[in-house]
Queue: 4 jobs
Job 1
Amino acid sequence: MKIEDFKSGRYLQQYQYKSFSPTRINIPWSWADGKINTLLAEANRKIGALDAFSSHIPDIDIFIEMHIAKEATQSSKIEGTRTELEEAIKSDSDIAPVRIDDWQEVHNYIEAMNFSIKKLNTLPVSTRLLKETHKILMKGVRGEHRNPGEFRTSQNWIGGATIKDALYIPPVHTEINDLMSDLENFLHNDQLEIPLLIKIAMAHYQFETIHPFLDGNGRIGRLLITLYLVSSGLLSKPSLYLSDYFEKHRQIYYDNLERVRVKNDMTQWLKFFLVGIIETSEKGNNTFKSILKLKEQVEDRKLATLGKKLPTAKSLMNYLYRKPVVTSQDVQDVLKVSSPTANSLLSDFERLGILNEKTGWKRNREFEFTEYLNLFRDK
């Protein structure tokens, strides 16, 4: 079927409302719009460059941990959660009680992402994997009693105080298993000669349209993108996440998804998605380059002045790449050193301009690797 002839679905009358029944997508697709081909070629080139560059960075997994933390904060922010990146990398004991619920949602997302990426070694992208990941996502947070790890057995809706004034009503629950089976088959159907980036763009739209869970659909749908990019071999490491792009263009993101359903305009959604791949790949490449440049400046120039302390200082640096906000107790626990040694090392790092003390207190002080953290903050 040509993308331009796509009919997104139809509305079915239920009791007092109409639900949307989406068209199945596990069929051959083609398109006439040359702009899609142009954007697709650039997106493939950019994501290939990102993957090639990240594959040659020593200890890349250390830096990817921060990428995952940022993805968790941005994806959760789209859903209304308010946790900043520097909070996300702290332990729960360092979070104000009023913000602990939002912090827990972000940490669940980090745990869910790490779990699902590791699980790809033994399980393909599938409804089973998404259900297992969803169970982790909803553990101990708002929505934990709304069938975590299971597809919904009741109606949900998007927008509006009640279903009567909802902006969008997904398919009735009795359709979900069939729709998700079609989506899973679409992702794994090697007979379809469809570029991988087009596949996952369409799959993300379809997942959000099905809305198979009672809660957490947005986060699982965005996580699905990275899982597919890794499982399909487009990325050898989970180094690209689109939530930052979607969050910065949140209304356009929602409008383009709805435009497919209302106006059958899959073309505009594909263009928006491919631009996201292009911009995010380029930004990721620049971030990795900046990390390597900063790493060289800090380790080759600043740490080199510490003499006998150098081995311990390097161990602390490796920890800071994972968690760029630390306390003296963190240093003691991670490096297995005494309190005086930890405080001395933190003073050295502060003197060298690597760390900045953020509290102004004499006790319970927090030190931030600001220059590194800024590479991941919103720009």
Job 2
Amino acid sequence: MIEMLKQKGFVRGIVLVALIATFSTLLANLPAIKSLGISPLVVGIILGIVFGNTIHYKLGSDMDSGITFSAKKILRFAIVFYGFRITFQEIASVGMEGFLVSLIMLSSTFILGIWAGIKVFKMDRDISILNASGASVCGAAAVLATEPVINADGYKAAIAVSMVVLFGTIAMFLYPALYLTVFEPSTGFLHMTPHQFGIYTGGTIHEVAQVIAVPASVPNASKEMSDAAVIVKMTRVMMIAPLLIILGLYLSFTSKTDSKQAVKIVIPWFAVYFIAVAGFNSLSLLPKDMVDGINMIDTFLLTMAMTALGIGTKFANFKGLGGAPIYTALIMFIWLIVGGFVVTKLVAGGF
């Protein structure tokens, strides 16, 4: 760290990222953008990409060390403190049915996304994993958390985040319409109770902000619906830690190494610390105002990390990808809607 501070432009690079992240946060809080459920993280990567492909070229590379630090080190720190958004009590309150829906949809979507990306559309392995992570767990935050485990290039994370934005936004408008026309208990032919629909929403929509926006868009939605949606979604967020640990172990044992060398096991310790922080938060030792403040700072740090990834994303890297990322994301999206409905009905109430 001391050596980094001595590097020319290191501090200026971090300050630059922080300034763009601040502007992204201000934009995301504008009513027109906030109503769409678009988080500062998404605004940050968009502005970062624009900056990285325009003004950044004129500034030279002396600030790149600070930008890389923001995309790597600050990211891990922010993921650890993301645990302050979750308590084990919240997860327990939704019951086994919410946990099972989360587990089934996360694991099936993740496997489907990787299989479709690599086997069907011959897509890059890293992009396939990041794409699957974003759809199956918690959107942009999951992509950010997965990127250091597989040591992927920043532009690949940007591709996955763009898929989260596209299909997560579609879901945010589609789900309320589906509930009012198809799932509403008194009129829908595939009726779901408010509790079931909350579990369905939390178990299948990409971003936390988008999950919150869906019940808010349903007229006269009950508190039961919104609570179930948010808690099930946060259960999926919690599952990012064991997923990354399993992924790290799997990649370690399947990597091509010299037969004379021992297999290097990579454990993403920041995921372990994430669980520890969530456990600490479950003890309610800190005042709510302090936890809210930590979460606000953490959101800003995540926005910085996303902004830094955006700055490192060059349009030239997107050449030759074709429609494979979109096709893969579309397959996962259809599975989340159709498969998620079937799984929710089977687990949380039956047909």
Job 3
Amino acid sequence: MTWLAAIGFWTRQQLAALGRGARLLLQMLALLPACLARFRLVGEQIHFLGNYSLAIIGVSGLFVGFVLGLQGYYTLQRYGSAEALGLLVALSLLRELGPVVTALLFAGRAGTALTAEIGLMKAGEQLTAMEMMAVSPVRRILAPRFWAGVVAMPLLAAVFSAVGVIGGWVVGVLLIGVDGGAFWGQMQDGVDWWYDLANGVIKSIVFGVAVTFVALYQGYSAKPTPEGVSRATTRTVVVASLAVLGLDFLLTASMFSI
């Protein structure tokens, strides 16, 4: 019965971790008024998470737009609909690629930085020292970073989509020769503010909550050793990426079934 005991022990550990994570998430959500009262802390983290991720987001969005312009043109050309290239690029970015790719890049750049930062604070006993001084680490350290990630993700997704559209325009209009008026006109007529823009924003907010929470939880629960921080950083990328892809399916299924 050793294997049965091992399965039971592992299951109990996972349920305990799930409970700790849910309690931590509720605490950070409840601390929104306190974070708004001291918005300077949140603003500093928005700069850290958003501004330092802007370069990789912009460059990635540009190249994704290039690829969409090329692939979309050669696909639409078969059906005589090359003028709809702008609509294809915009819908692909706003509905799916913008929020999803931004979240994956955000997990790899900002998520790992958050996990390493919190994990090193724990390894250096800084969080314990704060608790000894009656200062809540969740209130002072985790909550501002959490809400900064929630704010930064939609902004980065918007930058990714905008730069991607410009990349598609450069390839489609300037290089291939698609009519510029048709490119922008089809996009303007075909993009719906709710099914496309609003749904993309909702996705990016949900992904921001998921990625930032996973990063903070992994750092806060990491073993206070260099090896523990390293493993927590790796888990952040894996868990956050899987969470983004799973939530993308659920959100897409629910949004387009309404």
Job 4
Amino acid sequence: MTNATGGSGRALHFAALMGGNAALALGPWFVRIADTGPVAAGLWRLVLAVPLLAGMALATGQKLSGYRPAVWAAIVGAGVFFALDLGSWHLGILHTRMGNATLFGNSGSLIVMAWGMAMLRRWPHGREWLAFALALLGSAILLGRSLEMDRATLIGDLLCLLAGVLYAGYIVLLQRPRASLGNWALLTWSSLAGAPVLLGIALALDEQVIPQVWWPLIALALASQVLGQGLLIFALRHFSAPVFGLALLSQPAIAAAVGWLAFGEVLGWGDVVGMVLVAGALALARSTQG
């Protein structure tokens, strides 16, 4: 009986792990089919998710007030970085293939790893060197393939890479508050802090902000900001970092499949090789982060 219960528990946690990655991989599709601008889609992703995030924080006993000024400053700064990350990523999604957007948008793992080594003042070693080498080679292949297709596609890749850099800033700023506060509370306040930034960018770009059709934006908020994040938070403590990193590989595969089915994005062998190399680098980077 114990073995059966343990087996069902492991199956549930693994399903949550893969389900969270699948939900996050669908985000670019919802951005593309939304009838708002891409940055405005990011705004609604945050705003629509806040009530659910706050509810989850309260339901799990996480406090939403009474923080020290330094903690508030870190959360607001992280929210600004997260908003800039979403704005850059959503703009890039419209100009490159969905598989590329997902891979480059997740490049923050490598950047956080590099930042950690810089703080420790040490050179990479072992799997870290391999992760950097795979990332550079795979990125060079993918960027070259994008340039062959269209200069706009290359710009889309670069915007998604910039999003990865900004996401790394978000992760770094939240490191200290995360040690004492719950994930749901942090997501709630960072989302609220980021929403005005995205609204300002959307208005500056003269995007359509108010949608006529709401369901893609509701689905984006639920899939990317609530369901995806929530399932990964639930699964995180039940798996080692290498397993968690390997599960990340499902995201670009699902995104590429959706890109092919929904938008006719056909991948050549060069694309596949580049994606495998970058995905392997991300898995290695995640496995070094504890």
